[in-house]
Design brief:
heterodimer; A: alpha+beta; 2 domains; six-stranded mixed beta barrel; about 15% strand; B: alpha/beta; Rossmann fold; four-stranded antiparallel sheet; 6 helices; 10 strands; globular
């Protein structure tokens, strides 16, 4: 029975093809926007979560500067972090390791070509190694890792070894001139996931201090706690001690302490807000699409008044007419939703492709949880049916005698 | 035995301040197997009477009995069920659904009675064959001539095998030869036992009927 009605509704929509398509346009633009925004937003959040997962939930990073004003080390500040702070933190209980990491833009010559890229100085002591590796996500692809006792050797990031930075690919045993000092490449790395990190060069921390003539400052301290559960307590303790040591009041800190969890939360909140605003705008377009369906259905009821009268004369009940018109508007919504979802998935995939190609991050992936697809489909069906409700009620309540007389 | 009777039926419309009696106390008995013609000039209350007989409308006062059931106080949805089962309509302007094929048009009343698709299709094709349109099943109304459309309408009227066929000016939009054709068809149906009620102002059609009622100002002139 209901199948017959669906066929009938479909026939009616097909008869008014141009109008049906135009009506559905309103729905599928809205649904496409919602689906692509949610899938990309979800993908972005997944990417962020993954990034912080490799960092580990048991780590705390300390950088100079006040407030989260940008990537670590980028803020202009007179405050410095030094070995003195490392010593201070090491005295706190429950800590597994304290690792200083330095980085700076450096002049790098290779094959008579000059490029500026990040140069990291990393400690090589055995007990710090795992913290450094998981912090920077270092995995050697070719050659070996730099080790204790190494001096004039470096590891080159994935981007250098694939020829993204210099015209020539950087290989193991190649020579680089960094800040006018000669280094040999002993290892190349696997991709870290973003262009900035993949174009970096890693050298021993002591050598870095010599090359950049920075004997004191530390760009970033990474602390690994023994037990991931009290990471926030220890972060508070570090904050307190550093503040006391510097003679600062609460809220006046000239350094940032972030647990990876906090860092992830900050990102998630920001993206959440941006996403909510965008989805809000998309939702408005869905409402407009719904009004479009309502308008089309009202027109349709008026045009088919006589037809409604005929159907009633030959035995259609009010509920039959109601069902028929509701199905028509529901179908408009559903088909619009289907096209919208397809379009939205397409848009997300293109955006991901563009992100990979031009921004160079392989981290961003679009995520399509089944709930999103099912939800969008249900939502479009509901919008269609709701918008068709009033016109359908009007159609069903027509008196057969009046409707038959209508020309 | 009366299959349908109107007892002192009044239908009053209010047009502005004025009250107009489209039916002013009509009494009418239709027996099973009758072929009745209701005649009258425009404004005589013909159409209103037809609506009452066809269960499309309910009276302002009086009773309409269909197979001894008083239908004058029924809700629209209950009337629809009665119409679908017991009455077949034939209209002056055929009133087929333009988006549907001949076969689908004939199927439609059966669809509202929730008859399964296969049975519907078979029966609709049989009926269309009976009215001589076996080769036109997939044609839409605009691909058919007036006479053909009216024959589709007759097939549609017969689809739920109703007791009564109500025809409103069935030859009004047809040339005389096609008109005779359609009337012959109705006569045939009458011989097979169907009760036929025709509303018209064409005197030609009275020769087919067993009983003629003349309507004027909402009243029956003769008995």
């Amino acid at each position: 029975m209901i199948l017959d009605f669906i066929t009938l509704a479909f026939t009616n929509l097909k008869k008014r093809q141009v109008r049906s398509w135009l009506t559905m346009l309103g729905i599928f633009i809205g649904i496409a926007a919602v689906v692509s925004l949610i899938s990309l937003g979800q993908g972005l959040q997944d990417a962020i979560s993954k990034q912080f997962e490799t960092l580990g939930s048991d780590k705390i990073t300390i950088t100079a500067g006040a407030g989260l004003s940008g990537p670590p080390g980028s803020g202009f500040t007179s405050a410095k972090i030094t070995q003195h702070d490392v010593d201070l933190i090491e005295k706190i209980g429950g800590i597994k390791g304290v690792v200083p990491i330095n980085f700076k833009m450096g002049r790098v010559y290779f094959d008579d070509q000059l490029k500026y890229t990040y140069v990291y100085g990393i400690p090589l002591e055995e007990d710090m190694r795992s913290i450094v590796d998981s912090m920077s996500n270092i995995k050697v692809a070719d050659g070996r890792r730099i080790e204790q006792g190494d001096t004039n050797v470096v590891m080159a990031g994935y981007g250098l070894s694939t020829g993204d930075i210099f015209e020539k690919e950087v290989k193991v045993r190649d020579k680089l001139l960094i800040e006018d000092k000669k280094f040999e490449v002993v290892g190349t790395l696997e991709t870290i996931g973003n262009k900035a990190d993949d174009s970096a060069i890693f050298m021993p921390l002591d050598k870095w201090r010599e090359v950049f003539n920075e004997p004191e400052i530390i760009s970033m301290i990474v602390v690994q706690v023994q037990d991931g559960d009290n990471v926030n307590d220890i972060a508070e303790e570090i904050k307190l001690r550093m503040r006391k040591d510097r003679g600062l009041k609460e809220g006046e800190e000239d350094f940032n302490i972030l647990t990876s969890e906090q860092l992830a939360d900050v990102f998630k909140i920001v993206f959440g807000i941006v996403q909510a605003v965008l989805i809000g705008i998309a939702a408005i377009s869905l409402v407009v699409g719904g009004i479009g369906i309502m308008n089309t259905m009202y027109t349709s009821v008026l045009e088919r008044t006589k037809e409604i009268g005929i159907m009633k004369a030959i035995g259609a009940k009010n509920s039959d007419i109601l069902t028929l018109f509701l199905l028509e508007s529901g179908l408009l919504g559903l088909v619009g939703g289907l096209i919208g979802i397809t379009l939205g998935v397409g848009i997300s995939k293109v955006v991901v492709l563009i992100a990979q190609e031009f921004i160079g991050t392989g981290l961003l992936g679009a995520s399509f949880p089944p709930i999103l697809i099912v939800g969008a489909l249900t939502f479009s069906l509901v919008i269609g049916s709701l918008s068709g409700m009033l016109p359908a009620i009007q159609a069903s309540k027509l008196k057969p005698v009046d409707a038959l007389r209508y020309e | 035995m009366a299959i349908l009777s109107l007892n002192e039926v009044w239908k009053t419309y209010e047009i502005g301040e004025e009250k107009v009696n489209a039916m002013a106390g009509i009494n009418l008995n239709v027996n099973k197997g009758d072929f009745i013609t209701i005649m009258g000039p425009s404004g005589s209350g013909k159409s209103t009477t037809m609506n009452m007989i066809g269960c499309l409308d309910v009276p302002s006062s009086g009773a309409v009995l269909l197979e001894n059931q008083d239908i004058s106080h029924l809700e629209e949805s209950d009337l629809a069920i009665i119409r679908g089962k017991k009455i077949g309509f034939i209209f002056q302007k055929f009133n087929l659904i333009p988006t549907l094929t001949a076969l689908e048009n004939v199927e439609l009343p059966m669809m509202f009675q929730e008859i399964p698709k296969e049975i519907r299709k078979e029966r609709a094709a049989k009926l269309l064959g009976m009215v001589g349109l076996a080769g036109r099943l997939d044609h839409r109304p605009n691909e058919l001539s007036g006479g053909e459309q009216q024959r589709v309408a007759i097939a549609r009227a017969l689809s739920n095998d109703p007791e009564i066929i109500v025809a409103d000016e069935p030859t009004g939009n047809l040339d005389s030869k096609t008109g005779v054709n359609v009337m012959d068809f109705l006569r045939q149906l009458n011989k097979q036992g169907k009760t036929i009620i025709i509303v018209t102002h064409n005197e030609e059609l009275t020769k087919y009927s067993s009983k003629v009622y003349m309507l004027r100002d909402g009243k029956i002139q003769n008995e």
